[in-house]
């Protein structure tokens, strides 16, 4: 199983790569933080079938989402996305990376959560904010 598929839907959640704010200091700061966090998705994709490396990358992504300071317009939505990654991180921390069945179960649980309407709606609102306030 390619581990990156577990977060593939959320890779598109917030397309901030190479963006910066368009003059608004809050937007600029947020875009820079988001860009740094989402750049870590590249590392996840490069991990292939390395469960321990994948878990470490998810920990870093989760920290990046938690540390970002989103503008009030999308704070609740960012929190929803951040909580999804925090939950995945917590699940993976409790799993032996060599236990493929347990690891797959944790990823499947996350995949179900990632397909939720609440997460999808939050993703859409954050994406809209980014497209309106961050420039490439």
* Largest sheet entry: 2 strands, antiparallel
Radius of gyration: 15 Å
Residue-averaged pLDDT, rounded? 75
**Would you report the number of β strands?**
2
Distance between the termini: 33 Å
Within the largest sheet, what's the order of strands?
Answer: 1-2
The portion of residues assigned to helices is 55-70%
Number of domains: 1
Helix count from the secondary structure assignment: 6
Helix and strand composition category: mainly alpha
Shape: elongated
Strand content: under 5%
Poorly predicted residue ranges: 11-18
What order do the SSEs take from the amino end to the carboxyl end, as H and E?
HEHHHHHE
Q: In a nutshell, what does this entry contain?
A:
With 136 residues, this protein is mostly helical. Helix content is 69%, strand content 3%. It has one domain.
How does this model look, in words?
This protein is mainly alpha-helical. The protein has one domain. Helix content is 69%, strand content 3%. Helix 3 (51-67) runs antiparallel to helix 4 (75-93) and helix 4 crosses helix 6. The termini are far apart.
Compile the SSE list and pairings:
Blueprint: H1 8-11, E1 20-21, H2 25-46, H3 51-67, H4 75-93, H5 100-114, H6 117-133, E2 134-135
């Amino acid at each position: 199983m390619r581990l990156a598929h577990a977060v593939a839907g959320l890779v598109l959640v917030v397309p901030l790569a190479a963006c910066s704010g368009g003059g608004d200091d809050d937007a600029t700061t947020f875009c820079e933080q988001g860009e740094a966090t989402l750049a870590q998705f590249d590392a996840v994709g490069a991990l292939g079938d390395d469960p321990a490396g994948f878990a470490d990358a998810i920990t870093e992504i989760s920290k990046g989402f938690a540390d970002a300071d989103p503008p009030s317009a999308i704070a609740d939505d960012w929190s929803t996305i951040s909580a999804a990654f925090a939950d995945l991180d917590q699940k993976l921390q409790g799993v032996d990376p060599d236990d493929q069945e347990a690891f797959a179960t944790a990823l499947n649980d996350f995949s179900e959560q990632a397909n939720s309407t609440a997460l999808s709606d939050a993703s859409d609102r954050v994406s809209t904010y980014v497209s309106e306030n961050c420039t490439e």
